[in-house]
Amino acid sequence: MSSRWTITDSEDLYAIRSWSRGLFRVNDAGHVVLRRGDRELDLRGLADDLVERGIEMPVLLRLGDVLESRIESLVGAFEEAIKSLEFQGRYRGVYPIKVNQDRYLVEDVVRFSKPHHLGLECGSKPELLVVLALQNNPEALIICNGYKDDAFLELALLSRKLGRNTLIVLEQPDELERVLRIADRIGIEPALGVRAKLTSRGKGRWEGSSGDRAKFGLSVREIVSVVHRLEEGGQLDSLRLLHFHIGSQVSHIRNFKNAFKEAGRIYTELVRMGAKMGYMDVGGGLGVDYDGSRTDFSSSMNYDLTEYTWVVVSAIQEACDAAGVAHPDIVTECGRAMVAHSSVLIVPVLGVNRVEPEHFDADYPSVDSLRKILEDITLKNLQEPYHDAIEIKDDTLSRFNLGLATLEERAAVDAWFWRICRRLLEVGSEQLPEELEKLPSLMADTYYCNFSVFQSAPDSWAIDQLFPIMPLQRLGEEPKRRAVLVDLTCDSDGKINKFIDLRDVKNVLEVHEPNDEPYYLGIFLLGAYQEILGDLHNLFGDTNAVHVDLAENEKGYHLRAVLEGDTIEEALNYVHYEKKRLVDAFRGAIEAACDDSRLSIKEGRKLLKQYRETMDSYTYLGE
């Protein structure tokens, strides 16, 4: 261990202060901690406590204090901008539950949002049932987006009689007539909004959700038609809200500015045409700086929360003041920014595979040549030794395929080739020629981890989303190994080989040499979309999850809820296998083996017992 390495070096290496917005740090013991005010939670210590409680890894931590902090930061930033700019409207954000519909998390959002009167957004009938049951604050908005059938519309309208502040956002041209028909039949005045297809587009992976050809929303022609139809029926006062959305994880602040300018003009024109209005819903898009670089890279954002809120408030204010229109209440749907930081997956490392060879030495001319190449490597001649070693390795393979080289020679040549590659990395350090830049990833260790990428971090596989990953311990010690991570699935895509870096994307993660103690990695910022998008590849199901709050007790925390992950039986049920049928089929095989004397009755009973017990166990690997 380098005596000069400090926890500050680790914080810089993993950029923890940048991407965590100050929520996570490294303590004097070299452990990652959640820190809020003068209280902190040691994540490595918590992992040990969970195992001692019999809660198997991997475990998803849902951190209530982080969620509360993010909500307070969002509200505080808007209130500061509103006060400083003397804006006359209020901030009335909503949480779109599609981002993460977990009941405990949504209940926490409602609980922490209640003092600020933040609401909920739904985009389907199942989500509507959730928000109508959980959101009972009459000052908080319930925004109904997405495709809607008559049952959806009637339930949303009727909820207003319960005191719910429910607004139906028109996203398809045919929705208005159906809303008016149902509202007339049940005798309820609707509260409506329109979603506009802005010409302005976002930037990033989801920019296709905006623009003239977006999936949802009304064109300006269709919006004008809505106004005229409501005016004809004397119901123009029912139009209260303008909504638009320029995409999720918008990385460049300029895209917001252009969109808000266009939307501001549409809003003031609707008021000029006689609509009551009162709410401007700027949608989502507020990014999360996954890599901490604060750039317009797709996994980052070139602005912060303060700049975003000032752009929102000032753009709406300028448009309204220019048109002589009253300032509306501002609604956001910043789900990713609200909940991403609040979930962390703790993943145990199960084993390591290395490229570094065993000592293979043999008396062959090819090996003698490679040995000489290794001895002659200097900083001035990195490429030539590599070319020569490649040539000898390829020649040995050709001779082996022709029967002119033995397996022992091929093994020795292979070992010496990788030894040369390792030496090139050591000598070249950060001055590797372009041709050799792939050597670090080729030479990286493979760390086998007890989790499924497809279940717990599906965006890492599907869209190359970067998530901060770092060891939870030994951060006062220099991490001298370089690794890629592979999961438990039998799939070549079940790996993570792209990692955050302040300057670029790294192909390896700096890690420590495992010792006799459990070695845990934390995968951070998983709270948005990952849980609900996770799939059952290889039938690895939901992980165990614990809801943790900071507390003033000896441990420093309180486990508010422990949610057991899927058992094998539950995972099998998802794909329509019944435990009884499987057990009966397996019992039949055991009886046949006993009849043929391949198994004793005692062995058969033991095997069936083990089969049943395994059916009731966690889908991930046990101790």
Short description:
The protein is built from 22 helices and 21 strands. It is α/β, with parallel strands linked by helices.
How many domains make up the coordinates? Answer: 4
Individual helix count: 22
Number of distinct beta strands: 21
What top-tier CATH class of the largest domain fits best?
A: Alpha Beta
Annotated CATH topology of the largest domain: TIM Barrel
Range of helix content: 25-40%
- Helix/strand structural class: alpha/beta
Q: Give the radius of gyration.
A: 30 Å
What amount of the residues lies in strands? 15-25%
- The geometry reads as globular
What is the correct CATH architecture of the largest domain? Alpha-Beta Barrel
Q: Biggest β-sheet, characterized?
A: 10 strands, mixed
What is the CATH superfamily label of the largest domain? Alanine racemase
Q: Please mark out the parts with pLDDT under 50 across 5 or more consecutive residues, or reply none.
A: none
Distance between the termini: 29 Å
